[in-house]
Amino acid sequence: MANHGADLQQLTSWSSDWSKIRVGVVGLGKTGFSVADTLAELGSKLLVVSESGSAETLDILDVLGVEYVIDKNPEALQGSLGAFDPDLLIVSPGVEPSSLIVAEANSLGIPVWTDIDLAWRLKDRFGPGQEWICITGTNGKTTTTEITEAMLQEAGFRAVACGNIGTPILDCIRDPAEFEVLVVELSSFQLHYLDSIEPFSAAVLNVANDHLDWHGGFEKYRAAKGRMYENTKVSCIYNLEDKTTEELVQAADVKDGARAIGFGLGSPARSNIGFVEDLLVDRAFLDERADQALEIANLDDLASFGVLTPHLLSNIAAATALARSFGAKPEACRAALRKFKISAHRIELVAELAGVRYINDSKATNAHAAQASLGSFDSVVWILGGLLKGVDISELIGQFAPRLRGAVIIGQDRAEIRNAFALLAPKLAVTEIEEGDQVMQRAVIAAASLAQSGDVVLLAPAAASMDQFFNYQERGEMFKAAVGKLGGESR
Question: What mean pLDDT is predicted for residues 250-272?
């Protein structure tokens, strides 16, 4: 048996000797491949195990000389890892803590990392000094990460967004561009496994029920989010309108001198960032914050964002706090906001037809995100449903039933949603779309038949998409295509 953990304490740098450890890599998507590719370069002995892998990826592993086992059977994968006898296991973020492989590693005392842990130890690839700004939250992570990246780049910093946002963090660590600051989006999955990092600044945007099936309950999910603030050096950014985020800051063990900075939609007190009428202002990162504020932008500067919901304004304030903590000047933040284009499938106006607006918020994969969408409009025909991930959305339905013209239910968990509507809004017009072809086309036609001039037809599923679609992006694209077939002029 390998001498588990014997050498890991010495592996703190790109220049450390990584050739003496045996690493099991679990998963072969973008993240798993980036781990294997990096460790192969460093000379580690590797075994990659995965339920699937593209032919192109496997060809590259062959060229790199990396051993792999592809098998749908978890016991077969565990057997291969057992025979390999690794010193360390690095898992892709979606691998559940209850999985056979992770449970076996825990029982044997084998450390379990993600790519984030590995990247932290390798961040001196091009020399010391790289900083990380880290962002998590139930919703708004990607938008906030992208805005923060844009502000830092506008300010002249070599910054890049990475992590859960799509670009593997190890690719950025190894990039010859030599980034001086990484803006790292972290999911609760990554945070669950996280060993120890020291963010320059960190933000938890909000915390609400999500991924309860994966974590095994809300308290474990909340605890994972709270790990974001641990060891933060400069600024802990929290949401003034989400008490949980403030509690997580208070409970965190941060570096001496780290400040708590609040963001919100109201007029900011000292050490906060917020809005005064139509102005985004900073009372946190200036010497005279006791009685002065810096104007960052006005609502006209945000015209490129499209539909300015309260949730989006909150994300903008959070990103401003993060960028300002790193030294971005107000004028750079304003310039970035003027140019910024929000990613698709996030409260996206698709078309207007006969006075009805069609809004694509396919990214609303949980109840908290759907709440932000529903709260932005007065009269809604709501398209919802999919995989609820163990979350009860009855409270959401009860809260917004008075704003609904009607509802159209899709997806695997239709019965649960239908029963909630029957109990909480029995008089509401509800249409259920059965399984089969052209689900989204049928859903949009049904929603259009319920809508009246002045209404919004809103795709905000409050559920994951994988039961009927490849991902939320495909779900959103199919919604947009279906709206296009109604005859609306696409925006």
Answer: 96
